[in-house]
Amino acid sequence: MVSNLPRWDLKGLFPDIKPKITFCQRSLLENIKEAYAVANMEGKIIVFDDEKNNMENFIQEYNGTEVNYRPAEFDHSEIPAWLILTSGTTGLPKVAIIPYDRLLSGICCWWQPFTAAFETALTMSTFQWLSSLLYFVSSSLRKYTRLQCSVPLTPQLLVAIINKYRPECTAWTPHLLGQFLAGTEKICDMSCFIYVAVTGSPMEKHIFDKFKERTNAFLYLVYGMTELLVPGFDYSEETPFGSVGKPYDRYEYKLVDDQGNEVDKPFQSGELWMKGDAFFKGYLANPEETRKMLTEDGWFKTGDLFHRDEDNNYYFVERKRLLIKSSGYWISPLQLESVIKQHPDVANVVVVGIPDKERMEVPVAAIAKRPGRDVKPQEIFDLVREKMPDLRQLYGGLFFVEAIPMTASGKVHRTKIKETTLTAKRILPTL
Fold first, then answer.
1. Which CATH architecture has domain 98-319?
2. Which residues lie closer than 8 Å to 12 by C-beta, 6 or more apart?
3. What pLDDT digit, counting tens, does each position of 157-186 carry?
4. Distance of CA 395 to the CA centre of its chain
5. Alpha helix positions (H), 166-237
């Protein structure tokens, strides 16, 4: 288990996943014991940094000397191979069920664009997340050395690891990649990379350009999520910037509007639905959420809005559940964020909606300043007023934060930001 997984997440997950054995660092031991107690069950706990109860002792106790051992026979399409946490960016994490046959299909699909051999892959996410698990399982299949750190990966440690071990493949989120590129230009040689996968949120153009200045690696911009398991689209170096690529032949795709009708014209947005044999099978012990995401005839509702161009390139528009409905109109947080980021002294910003008696919801901006810089609230309000129509202003105001909270998988933690927004001292615009 990742060392910074919140106690309430553990307590919510254990009654469903019912783990018989848990591997963790000492810092998480008490939280895991409490989670077992809440679930009214017992389980074995292996503590990596405890000499009396670490992995070495576990192997010595269970040394695998059973005579005439035979692997179990089971239905690979029914029995779960992985129970994977979703990222929890907009709520509590759920547990996605991945059977064995879909896992094998997913591993093959992930590595399809990576045709050249490489020797070392660096995994930066913790072991419970999809990218780390894929790197772990794939290492024996692709015959590469997996480079993984057992302590929190700070920027300084990451620089040292890249400079010393020269990994050729890794995965980043756009946010973490942008931060790394900005702070390491003179101290980290990234020329070793051949492939870099980026997933989790849309890539901004200035990060893309800065990456290309630092390395000739293939930047694999992946549209995906835990539930999909596989890259959703065929992305290549010929894909137009901003697009996630073209549909694969092996899956079915459609865009669906709010009335449930299929969108069949270019540049019209709709929710992306996909059907295929590589996706998750449902959420563990959560039939209600499963019914929301999977239709009876097998379509997976991604919850993401897309449009496509005349050449069938697909473009991510917005996470549907993040849209803010204000005075009867939909407001895109990502659109507002892109405007506010144009201010030279804004390091990062997240826009969320909060309840409002008159407008139903109003957008609020949580802003992190660049170090040593000053941002006057009126400058932000003026910038939004210049770029956006009256119905899409920051009527909920703004407030400043030291840093934008992130999930353990490196994504913006919008749920925490929304909780903070409800109690923050907001600066309101002058109307």
1. 3-Layer(aba) Sandwich (3.40)
2. 92
3. 999 999 999 999 999 988 889 989 999 999
4. 29
5. 174-183, 205-214
